[in-house]
Design goal:
One of its GO terms (molecular function) is antiporter activity. Keywords: Cell membrane, Membrane, Transmembrane, Transmembrane helix, Transport. The chain is built from 16 helices and no strands. With 458 residues, it is mainly alpha-helical. The protein folds into two domains: 234 residues, no CATH class; 212 residues, no CATH class.
Length: 458
């Protein structure tokens, strides 16, 4: 029987520039809808008052930890499958997909079993008291019961991306986030569940998304990978291959959260409570600008992975550099937009009388902080390329260097030793990121050069 070649696989094995565009656009759309959902979720819950908002906020670091672990595993699956598709190893791709799903099942069960009994202590240890903790415990229990579903969604999505099926990966993301936006007010207000209703809405939308992914993978079976237990061949090598990308990817996402914690502290040090209000508001807007880069990065991992599996380093280099060029041009436009419309954007966060005090500082931040987005593609696409070729540890080193060492380090130095105050923090983040981008890109170019020499591809 001949190899089943899907449209996604044809894209992955075809023109690398077209592949980057065709795979990144659906991912950008999916991630944009997810970002809108995050904003909408906060808006719906805020209607219940500060205790409800605090309850969701308390569980947020735990939730982000679960997302980091599961999406890291999804990236590991995506990379392992893409490389085997490039090598025309259909059996290997099937086996990598089955290993990924078994890992997802184990991780999901472990998260539920270990976290459910101690979630109360974790939330109390964060220093919150009273009603907010009670609400947070109720809220988090619902989502922890659904940990398996959360992990399965991320890994299923990673399998689809790995075989070049970005459209279905996008449908899954849009469906989940869109359903959540609609269900939130129904569960919170119409059914009167309050803040726990937000957790039920999230869980239900995740279950519906899971059913679609399961239908595509197990029932319709029109994906490139065939997932059946009879094809499962336990392999330490496959396991190592997935985890070598998956674990560093999870840690890299956790590193970003740690960096945020320190940047918040530096903003408070430089500008008090108003300083952190300015920083978090400006950062939210800036993070919207990072969505195109994230979409492009997930495409870069799949396309460079397939090219590496094919041992075609010229193709890998074309995809890597083209993704950087495209993301760089998009970010130039995004940054220009934010800078020009900074006063209008600032109004979204300062429309109340009490928030007016931060307006000038916020406009200043919106005209400085987003500049770092312009060079971010050089570092992030290098990280994505390292993930593609199965060298996840290099991607992790680059992320730690960019976020913790350079961004936090430069922000601290500028805030404390220049007399610039808060503007010094923004300048530090921008400069730290720029240095990290140059270092990352140089490392990426050197690694591609080494691969060309190793594979005799000039």
């Amino acid at each position: 029987m001949g190899e089943k070649v899907t449209k996604g696989v044809q894209i992955l094995r075809g023109d690398p520039k077209k592949a980057i565009i065709k795979l990144s656009i659906p991912m950008m759309i999916g991630m944009s809808v997810q970002t809108v959902y995050n904003l909408a979720d906060g808006i719906w819950v805020s209607g219940l008052g500060p205790e409800a908002l605090a309850a969701v906020g308390l569980f947020f670091p735990v939730f982000m930890g679960i997302i980091a672990l599961s999406s890291g595993l999804g990236i590991g699956a995506s990379s392992a499958i893409a490389r085997r598709i490039g090598a025309k190893d259909k059996k290997g791709a099937d086996n990598a997909a089955i290993h990924s799903l078994i890992l997802a099942l184990i991780l999901g069960i472990l998260l539920t079993v270990t976290m459910l009994p101690i979630i109360g202590q974790i939330l109390t240890a964060m220093g919150a008291k009273g009603r907010a903790v009670e609400l947070a415990i109720e809220y988090s229990r619902v989502l922890l019961i659904g940990a398996v579903v959360m992990v399965f969604n991320n890994v299923g999505n990673g399998i689809l991306r790995g075989e070049g099926d970005a459209n279905r990966a996008m449908y899954a993301m849009v469906l989940g986030s869109g359903l959540n936006i609609v269900l939130d007010p129904v569960f919170i207000y119409t059914l009167g569940f309050g803040v726990v209703g937000a957790a039920y809405a999230t869980l239900l939308s995740m279950i519906v998304t899971s059913l679609f992914i399961a239908y595509w993978l197990f029932i319709k079976r029109d994906t490139y990978v065939d997932i059946t237990l009879r094809d499962f061949s336990p392999s330490k090598e496959v396991l190592k291959d997935i985890l070598r990308v998956g674990i560093p990817s999870s840690l890299a996402q956790l590193t970003m959260s740690i960096a945020m914690f320190f940047l918040n502290r530096i903003a408070i040090m430089a500008g008090g409570e108003n300083g952190v209000a300015v920083f978090t508001s400006a950062w939210r807007v800036t993070m919207l600008g990072i969505v195109p880069i994230l979409g492009m990065a997930s495409a870069t991992t799949a396309v460079t992975g397939a090219a590496y599996g094919e041992r075609n380093i010229q193709k890998l280099e074309t995809a890597y550099l083209y993704a950087i060029k495209l993301a760089f041009m998009i970010e130039l436009g995004v940054v220009a937009f934010i800078m020009v419309f900074a006063p209008q954007i600032s109004y979204l966060f300062t429309y109340s009388e009490s928030a007016l005090v931060i307006k000038e500082g916020l406009i200043e931040a919106l005209r400085t902080l987003p500049i770092f987005l312009v060079l971010t593609p050089f570092g992030m696409m290098t990280s994505a390329m390292f993930q593609g070729i199965g060298e996840g540890e290099k991607s992790l080193v680059l992320t730690i260097f960019r976020t913790v060492v350079m961004q936090v380090g430069f922000a601290y130095l500028f805030a404390n030793y220049t007399g610039f105050g808060l503007i010094g923090v923004w300048m530090g983040i921008v400069l730290g990121n720029m240095v990290a981008a140059v270092v990352g890109f140089t490392w990426g170019r050197l690694r591609v050069k080494q691969l060309k020499e190793a594979f005799g591809d000039s």
